[in-house]
Amino acid sequence: MGKKLRACKTCGKSVSGDGHLCDPVELTEAFVCEDCGASSLDPKHICKPKLEKLKYTCKKCGRLSVSEKKLCKPIEI
Question: pTM of the predicted model, to two decimals?
Answer without folding.
Answer: 0.49
